[in-house]
Design goal:
By secondary structure, the protein is of the alpha+beta class. The protein is built from 8 helices and 11 strands. The chain has 3 domains: 60 residues, no CATH class; 149 residues, Sufe protein. Chain: A (Alpha-Beta Complex); 102 residues, BolA-like (GMP Synthetase, Chain A, domain 3, 2-Layer Sandwich). The N and C termini lie far apart (74 Å). It holds the Pfam family BolA. This is SufE-like protein.
Length: 334
């Protein structure tokens, strides 16, 4: 009697299924099995062939991955390596749906406007807590634990991946995660442009949540020692301009996610009449903008990382304008 095969795992989670294929004219079953804590090149191993068929198990990592520049958490790096080893888009899609089914349920108090992720095709809510790191007797190291939900299954799977990959990391470690890991994991191949932008927005909101949680804890410590300096008021609204959809979208996105203490967006399109790209977005003619923004989210980030964060948040909007000049500062730099 044949023993049942052990389930293949992705970061400790059974994969959704096997990909059937044909090999050398015979019937085969292709599967993947990522090596723990390593990045491996493509390899194939075959068992002894019978006269009628063969069964081949092989790794499908096409190229050796270099993830060091992405500053991933250990858990996220393991999942990126595992996802990149899945040989086909359909199985990656199934794996995301499987992870969605395993995401713990949340209570209704999480589904509030403050926790909603903007710019997603589905409705997504996410929040976090800051807790002492397990095993840290001095309780000096604080780590983030996320929880959330979405009404779309694929989006919920993406959220589950982020939650699983970022939980247990410090706020500083989470800020350093490069969103380009979605390409290294080959997940972007599974997503439409809209869902890809939604994924980036989820990561940006989760980074902001971690930063807010860390600053909230620091503020509580300062208050206990006798009070803290008064913080600058956060910009929560702006005056929309009729006939300027790009202006309104940029302002809404940055104010909602970055919660700046100061933001000024100037439409300089008229100064670039006749230049390439000066036609701008449809009939509005919006093509060139200058942005000055001050936000806590930029604290500790290099100039390049600040610009990358803004580009990531604006997503498809950046493809509809010709240029965006950026001056981004933290409150301490003002």
């Amino acid at each position: 009697m044949r023993r049942p095969s052990k389930p293949l795992l992705i970061a400790g989670i059974p994969i959704a299924g096997l990909a059937l294929s044909s090999y050398n004219g015979g019937s085969t079953v292709s599967a993947w099995s990522p090596a723990p804590h390593t990045t491996t090149a493509t390899s194939r191993r075959s068992h002894k062939q019978s006269s009628s068929s063969s069964v081949i198990l092989h790794s499908a990592i096409e190229d050796e991955l270099d993830l060091s520049s992405l500053h991933l958490t250990p858990q996220l790096e393991m999942m990126v390596t595992a996802f990149s080893s899945i040989p086909d888009e359909k199985t990656r899609h199934k794996q995301l749906l499987y992870m969605a089914s395993k995401l713990p349920a949340v209570t209704d108090d999480v589904r509030i406007s403050e926790n909603k992720v903007p710019g997603c095709l589905s409705t997504v809510h996410v929040d976090c807590t800051l807790e002492p790191k397990e095993g840290d007797d001095d309780q000096e190291t604080m780590v983030v634990n996320y929880f959330g939900d979405s009404d779309g299954l694929l989006t919920k799977g993406l959220l589950a991946l982020l939650i699983r990959g970022l939980n247990g990391a410090t706020p500083e470690e989470i800020q350093n995660v490069d969103p380009q890991f979605i390409q290294a994991a080959k997940i972007s191949q599974t997503l439409t442009p809209g869902r890809n932008n939604g994924f980036l927005n989820m990561l940006a909101v989760m980074k902001k949540k971690a930063l807010d949680a860390a600053e909230g804890g620091a503020a509580a410590d300062v208050d206990a020692d006798g009070g803290a300096e008064e913080q600058s008021a956060i910009v929560t609204s702006f005056e929309e301009i009729d006939g300027k959809p790009m202006y309104n979208i940029i302002m809404t996105t940055l104010i909602t996610i970055l919660k700046p203490t100061s933001i000024t967006l100037t439409d300089n399109s008229s100064q670039h009449a006749g230049h390439a790209g000066s036609k701008g977005w449809e009939e509005s003619g919006e093509s060139h903008f200058a942005l000055e923004i001050v936000a806590e989210a930029f604290e500790g980030l290099s100039l390049v990382k600040r610009h990358q964060l803004i580009y990531m948040l604006l997503g498809e909007t950046m493809q509809k304008i010709h240029a965006l000049e950026i001056k981004a500062k933290s409150p301490a730099e003002v």
